[in-house]
Amino acid sequence: MQFSLLKSQGSGNDFFLIDIRHYNGAVTDSMKKQLAIYLCNRNSDFGADGILYVDNSTVGDGKMVIFNADGSEAEMCGNGIRIVARYVSELLEKPQVIIENKTGIPYPLNLVEDFYPELTAFELTFPKANFDSSNFLIQNNGTELIDGLIPELSSTIKFTALSLPNPHIVAFVDDIVEEDLRALGEKANSSPQILPHGVNVNFGKIISDNSIYVATYERGVGLTYSCGTGMFATTLSAVNNGHVKKGEWVTLFNKGGYTKCLVNNDLSGRMIGNASYIYAADINFDFENNNIISSINNGDYSHETGAYEKLLAHVNELS
User: Mind listing the pLDDT tens digit for each residue in 36-61?
Assistant: First the structure.
């Protein structure tokens, strides 16, 4: 089966975008899973954190269906949805679009001109966050966990749990050690007695009253350069803990660059971040034999790649 791939990234979180709208439902969930596992393999000629499938929507301009590198399907992706928004926006030639996620939530997104020189960026509007974690975290007391312990994971680290609508736990630490985050993320995602559906684990380090460094162990992926919903979850948790203020923009630095987030009084909010293209390719995939019969590189976006390298250099200067 022929597919056109668009390799892309949002804050270093990289994906293949595949528009499946013209296949009229012929691309099944099992095929989406198979493609994700094959194409996202970092030991192959491709490699990514996931695949963004663009489908038809009844409530917006397009629908984002995301499959992680391990073949699991995610409810939401804050970095990925900006990429889908750019793709749909350019097709429709309009700067504001509405993109639906797996759970049917319509997310408004709009083009932002001044995020960083020569980079395309979009602003995502989040609905009110849900701090009722009873649907993903099994606890003995109550339905909310705000700066509290999960004894099965750690006897010292305190977490805040919330849904966006994908599940997150957030902890603030003095120093972020990737191996500690990896170990905790692996433990959290192999403990079905407390987290039956797994969870995204975020470490935040407060830099100032308007900047935070964030690292995420993403469910279905592992350690990532960034996680869009993880950055917004960390901002919400920082507001709850008094580290940052509502109504003010906060810069979220990460291994892949940065985004900017703002939390409203009702705990809804906004995020601004890049939506960048890396290269385009066409492949002919053999599902029966699980391999690529042929692939053609249709060109790269070296101008965008170069602009993002400048952003990363700028971030390194700041840190």
Answer: 999 999 999 999 999 999 999 999 99
Mean pLDDT in residue range 6-20: 98
Look at residue 181 and tell me whether its pLDDT is greater than 70.
yes
Last residue of a domain, one of 240, 267, 294: 267
Q: What is the average pLDDT across 212-220?
A: 97
* 166 & 106 share domain: no
pLDDT at 4: 97
DSSP letters, the chain, are -EEEEEEEEETTEEEEEEE-GGGTT-S-HHHHHHHHHHHT-TTSSS--SEEEEEE--SSSSEEEEEEETTSPEES--HHHHHHHHHHHHHHHT-SEEEEE-TT--EEEEEEES-SSTT--EEEEEE---B---TTT---SS-S--SSEE-TTT-SS-EEEEEESSSEEEEEE-SS--HHHHHHHHHHHTT-TTT-TT--EEEEEEEEETTEEEEEEEETTTEEES--HHHHHHHHHHHHHTTSS-TTS-EEEEETTEEEEEEE-TTS-EEEEEE-EEEEEEEEEEETTTTEEEEEEEEEE-HHHHHHHHHHHHHHHHH-
For 197, the domain range is 148-267
Catalytic residues: 77, 227
pLDDT at 139: 74
Q: What is the CATH number of the domain that holds 21?
A: 3.10.310.10
